[in-house]
Amino acid sequence: MSSSYMSWRSSASNRRPTQPTNTSKNRGTIYPDLNQDPTPKPVIHFLAFALIVFLGLLQFLPASHFRHPSDPHRKWVPFNSHSSPSPTVKLTVDEDDGLIHIVSWMQCLDLKVLAVLANSTLSSSRYPDMLHFHFFTPQGDKDKVSFYKLKVLFPHSNLELHGQEKVKEIIKRASSEAEYDSLNLEEIAPFIIPSVHQSLTKFIYVSPNLILMGRIEELTGIDLSAHAAAAAEDCSNRLNSYVSSDVLDAIQRSASKPWISVTPYVKDACMPDLSLLLINGKKLEEFLEAVLWWSKVLNWSDRSDKRNPAIGLALYNRYLKLSNSWLVKEPASVDTIETSMITHYDGPKIVCSEFGNDTIPGSSHGNLWIKYLPSMSNQILGI
Ligand SMILES: *[C@@H]1O[C@H](CO)[C@@H](O)[C@H](O)[C@H]1NC(C)=O
Ligand SMILES: *[C@@H]1O[C@H](CO)[C@@H](O)[C@H](O)[C@H]1NC(C)=O
Ligand SMILES: *[C@@H]1O[C@H](CO)[C@@H](O)[C@H](O)[C@H]1NC(C)=O
């Protein structure tokens, strides 16, 4: 023990004196270098500094090119080139994720109708990879089979299925059973969805039975900050065909509610077309209350035979009017197909009923839908 200790000490004490000689030897080799260090002229200092400042200032020039995050080739696209996407479309979509959210609600699941809606929208868009579909279906995200069938057809699309319970619950809690039954869920749901899905604040709602032929991204440049919604006016459907102007005048005189128009109601005002809407979730306070109030005041739950004008009345003076080209046209003639942005789905579809949800048999279908659902795709979806 002691010998090993001694040897350690001795080796340590032996080592110690060597250190100063080493460092003094090193120092001797370093000094000549330091002495030779060039002293640059002040002009060089200044030029180097100016170069750094210049490179730094380049950062403040406006960007001239951009790359789309989902472009596999990460190609640089100039901002002001005419053949490329106009960046204003992209930048006004949604501050958060830059996607165009397209929402639809379907009472009985009909995959063909959804596939035609998705494919016509994707095929007509210049930026299909910016579209994000949210389909609200009875089974929602629990229905994996339907989800994968749609994913097989559109592997590169952003597509989600959502359940309907939470939205239905909100409406049920606010209304009586008769009122609930008098509402068309496909019409009221878009106004309730933002309170359930906080990430969906600005979106485009499309009724499922549509074929889109216009570029949906054109709708995203519209400034909706002052309005709850935007819709096209449907002048084949006027206010006085639902409610007489005497009744409206009486209501306006006697009731005071924030959603009653201050100016007299125009008795033959065109109703909004609820099949395609731009929704601003931040401006929808009291909307459901207003719709239920109008239903009640007009006794609409007693006359379930007719379409309920309550949503149109709640939107009166509160929606931005979209250009007439976004009004849904009948797929009647070839001319209207060529000029319209949007038309009704013309294929076979499943009709909800208590006795069984069946495809309408033997009705005369158009053939526009086949373009967006070729027989190969139709087979993948099955029946
Ligand atoms: C609704 O029903 C109530 C009572 O049944 C009636 O007094 C009122 O006039 C009705 N309103 C309309 C708009 O028909
Ligand atoms: C019809 O569809 C609805 C919703 O998808 C469902 O709740 C109902 O059970 C279906 N009816 C039949 C008979 O399949
Ligand atoms: C989508 O529609 C286009 C025609 O616009 C068609 O060529 C294509 O096959 C369709 N895609 C699917 C998955 O059906």
From TrEMBL:
Q: Sorted alphabetically, which keywords does the UniProt record give?
A: Glycosyltransferase, Membrane, Transferase, Transmembrane, Transmembrane helix
CC terms in the record's Gene Ontology section = Golgi apparatus
- A GO term for molecular function: glycosyltransferase activity
Q: Where is this region: Disordered?
A: 1-34
> Polar residues: which segments have biased composition?
14-27
InterPro entries in UniProt: Glycosyltrans_8_dom-fam, Nucleotide-diphossugar_trans
Query: So where does this one cross the membrane?
Result: 43-61
Coiled-coil positions are none
Give, as in the UniProt entry, the pathway in which the protein acts: Glycan metabolism; pectin biosynthesis
Has UniProt tagged this entry with the keyword Membrane? yes
* Composition-biased stretches (Low complexity): 1-13
Record-linked SUPFAM superfamilies: Nucleotide-diphospho-sugar transferases
Query: PANTHER family given for it?
Result: GLYCOSYLTRANSFERASE 8 DOMAIN-CONTAINING PROTEIN (PTHR13778), LIPOPOLYSACCHARIDE 1,3-GALACTOSYLTRANSFERASE (PTHR13778:SF47)
In its UniProt entry, what is this protein called?
Hexosyltransferase
Organism, scientific name: Gossypium raimondii
